[in-house]
Amino acid sequence: MVTLADVARHAGVSASTVSYVLSGKRSISASTRERVESSIQHLGYHPHAGARALPGGRPRVIALMMPLRTDVYVPVMMEIALAVATTVRARGYDILLLTGEEGPSGVRRIERGALADAVILMDVELDDDRLPLLRASARPAALIGMPADTSRLHCVDLDFAAAGALCVEHLAGLGHRDVAVIGEASAVYARRTGFAERTLDGLRTRSRELGVRLLHLPCEGSRTVAATLTRILEQRPATTAFVVQNEAATEPLLTLLRRQRLAVPGKVSVMAVCAEQTAVHASVPLTSIAVPAQKMGRRAAEQVMAQLAGERNAEGEVALFEPELTVRNSTGPRSHETS
Amino acid sequence: MVTLADVARHAGVSASTVSYVLSGKRSISASTRERVESSIQHLGYHPHAGARALPGGRPRVIALMMPLRTDVYVPVMMEIALAVATTVRARGYDILLLTGEEGPSGVRRIERGALADAVILMDVELDDDRLPLLRASARPAALIGMPADTSRLHCVDLDFAAAGALCVEHLAGLGHRDVAVIGEASAVYARRTGFAERTLDGLRTRSRELGVRLLHLPCEGSRTVAATLTRILEQRPATTAFVVQNEAATEPLLTLLRRQRLAVPGKVSVMAVCAEQTAVHASVPLTSIAVPAQKMGRRAAEQVMAQLAGERNAEGEVALFEPELTVRNSTGPRSHETS
DNA sequence: GAGAGGTATCGAAGCGCTTCGAGTGCAAGG
DNA sequence: CCTTGCACTCGAAGCGCTTCGATACCTCTC
């Protein structure tokens, strides 16, 4: 193992000089810098991670807490995680992966063990039990997802309320008056996940404003889509449009509608709030509002980087992405035949 | 921050005694141990991660290198990753997440920086460029996936060759004589991913033995399934069974067959080598061989743990899981009508 | 041309932890 | 009773790195 002392010896300077070349915290003459840098190259020196973390030093690691749940759509989580990893890596940081299972005790472990310089939490609930710890801590942090109280926190999310509103506007603009919402599994609402609840708020508020009748039903998974659809058509036979926020339900829904001879978008319109990929690859390409997973991951990473760079903003910052609606083949004007 | 010295002071012993209580490397009297342990509890002591990593010490971190690719099925990767994370966490280790993008230089970084005690690599290619580094290194390692040369390596994988063979056996047993294989994207074969190639070997060998005619076509994604199916039916109109090893293609294939009035399993049989979830939730529940993602992750984690515990096996160990075929609703006896 | 101020470098201390060698006290053995 | 060996504990050294003075030299300025 090559140490800093080896580099110093090779370059004919003291260890501290090498350290300052590396950190840039004191001025170094150009000639010395070059000599040291070439020694580093030549010996293939890499700082020892543990030693770097020692005094008040930064381990150059970001902790990322990822959910273990199976009721969230995994590819989106993954895309976020990889965007975070790529972004921080570009700045010389590594990612420590924690599972959501660990909850507050995971945050405490990071804190106590000085394992990481900053924390990024995914799958944040409206009233998340990890937040008090985060607020009490001096450690930079960012949330992906928005809790109810965002004071003194840094958050990144899609503006799901606006997304909900945008769905209603689009459908109302096409003449639809009866819209059904096929939502996430009831467990997702039960544990008060922000995005699901906010989307619903947006849908409801705008529906009321535009005089659209809205029926919302949670949907447990792909197997229960049929039952959900049946209930919708019984309770609201006049339904001509569906908003789906449940990755597992989109394709089964399209299949069922096809089987029932409800042409999309001829007879009924379908739109989704989902991953771009899901919408594009559906058997009927779906008009959708995409969850900007990659952007969110990158932005959260940048938030903690900025905090680490000393641009501490004690007030926090909420970065909400504007929803963008992409019209594809699954929505059209309301059909006036009775279904 | 509570340090080991604080604990020592509180317990009225020396720092080294506390250290020995923690590591168990020397005998400690019961009374002292109790006193120290209660001080640890009382003060909420957590060892400082950096300091622990210092001398020859173990940082208690496992590096996990995960692919960034989009042509692998993400949920399986995720399941493996989370199984690894959960398993090592139970033993007090943390996970450092690297992206596959980093390639060999990522491995080198771990090595040089002493960032992790061991490495687990996912998405291993037959002739992976990270392997020479691993072999040269003293650091414990495990691969998820099997390279061509496994000497001195620890690997975990499903026995994909056996899986391929098992598929053919099952279909031949039902009387099928013309089988089409819808495979992964051609890029997957091009970069010589072990699992795809081995499955194909198994399929081909057993087909030859059992007198089954086999046609293999790669499939780029869900959009190209139709073209692939057309080519199959043109080249081998007698085809009565399909083996799918491509998560994105399964559902579109079922939809297409339905549209062409090829009842499953009445007219044609379909089976898959895929995630359990995909098979169960398909519109026709699929006879399948599941990829035991969770088991693989856990086993790889256990392999490195064993190596860390000193059970170093310089010869390596290849843990191949026996494929298990679950019969569902998608395979049946060959129909003797002409399709 | 002496002090002020700046730049470039060094030595030493110390971060929290592990580990080695040494030391204490005690029981058993000669 | 003295040695031997064992069980237990301590002090000190040192891991690789950062950082804080201190030092040496150089360039201005009055």
TrEMBL record, chains A, B:
Its keywords, alphabetically, are: DNA-binding, Transcription, Transcription regulation
Concerning CDD domains, the annotation shows: HTH_LacI (cd01392)
Q: Which domain of life is it from?
A: Bacteria
PROSITE patterns (alphabetical) = HTH_CROC1, HTH_LACI_1, HTH_LACI_2
Q: Does the keyword Transcription regulation apply?
A: yes
Every copy of the HTH lacI-type domain together lies at 2-56
Q: Which Pfam families match?
A: LacI, Peripla_BP_3
Output the Gene Ontology terms for molecular function: DNA-binding transcription factor activity; transcription cis-regulatory region binding
Output the SUPFAM superfamilies linked to this UniProt entry: lambda repressor-like DNA-binding domains (SSF47413), Periplasmic binding protein-like I (SSF53822)
Where in the numbering of this chain does the HTH cro/C1-type domain appear?
A: 3-32
The name on file for this protein is: DNA-binding LacI/PurR family transcriptional regulator
Q: Provide the species name.
A: Streptomyces candidus
